[in-house]
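Figure S7 source data.
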Amino acid sequence: MANINAPKGVPDYVPPRSRDFLRVQEQLSSSARLSGYEYIELPVFESTELFERGVGTSTDVVQKEMYTFTDRGDRSITLRPEGTAGVMRAVIENRLDKGALPVKLWYRGPFFRAERPQLGRYRQLQQVGVEAVGSVDPIIDAEVIALADQAYRSLGLNDFHLDLTSLGCSQCRPAYRIKLQEFLGTCDLDQETKERADLNPLRVLDDKREIVSSQMIDAPLMIDSLCSQCQEHYDQVRDFLRIFGVQWNEAPRMVRGLDYYTRTTFEFVHPGLGAQSGIGGGGRYDGLMAELGGSELSGIGFGLGVDRTLLACEAEGLTPFRSRILDVFVIPVGDQSREPSVSLLVALRAAGIAADVCVDNRSIKSAMKAANVSNAPLVIIIGPDELSSSSVIVKNMTSGDQQSLPSEPGTLIPAVQETLRNLQAENRKEDQS
Ligand code: HAM
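Tokens for the predicted histidyl-adenosine monophosphate complex:
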């Protein structure tokens, strides 16, 4: 019978790489968790209308990339292509906007876009995101950007940069849009690009084709047409970014693929990834809550791509991370040792020590091989001699040293904890040198 493979463009993360995936996912949310952002768990499917209204019908995401189906109750359902619209829906529905503001939330999980698959562009993609809703204070803009910057740096990433601009607001953008459309009217564009210019003229600015980009050199830019409030806001965002210690490039031609952005907009780019170089992005959205039937509150957030960040870590040689999944591997030698070994396993796990036991009555040679594969820094061996002397052998897998310790859990467990702490301290010293 033929094998069944995963659908096209949907990545698997299997061990040992899945360890790195998990590490990246955890690190990307670490800065938000340390800054008072609360976790929000959201459904992976929503009413299609949420994305049509929230993300915007003129975007590629809504026009061509959504996984939409009719459910058994004849409702149009869509697998979420992004997180912001769902967070706003949940904030409104659960009346979080009526409580203390700003509401600061973080989320993670899979999102779905029917894009043409290639390395770093998947149909099931993973993001870690944050949204801070209910404040226009530029401190929040800078904080959100700094959280993303810090998250990448906590993984050891260095070779990325931040593109930043302001897209203006409902006061200044319409006038700029007319100015840009007038300019585009004087350019020599093919029919499809002309249609795009009518629908979403900003996207023409970002067209990578030489024939178009060469004509965009003198195009008017939003950043030169900001109203005084937007200019003041953008200036302050940059002042606070300096205080947060974040560096950026001015990117006045940046275009994002979602319609809701206003004012501060940003993207993190990693040049080691080829075409799919955007490892994360976000921005402010002034009208989104109201568009979805909620209060007139502004928000700002980001989505960081876990898949691409893992690729970026690999491109910088940061993986495999020194992430151990086990502290101790227990080896019973002989039938009589099986039960005491499992009792020890239970005690270790109860004490918060990640432990596993060798099964299938392996020979000591084959059990030591399994211990090596497990990558546990300590191995505890219980054989007939140890049983008769109420002891165990504790072997340090890095140095090869081994010692005999009493098997009584009240003595053994603290000794194992102490050894693990010492090993961790040695590793930290090594990392710093
Ligand atoms: P986005 O720029 O569409 O923004 O996606 C954020 C990140 O998700 C991208 O920078 C990229 O790393 C990753 N990503 C997007 N599409 C794919 C794909 N097909 N394969 C792999 N990775 C992908 C948003 O989704 C907004 N909701 C972010 C946001 C939050 N804005 C405000 N708040």
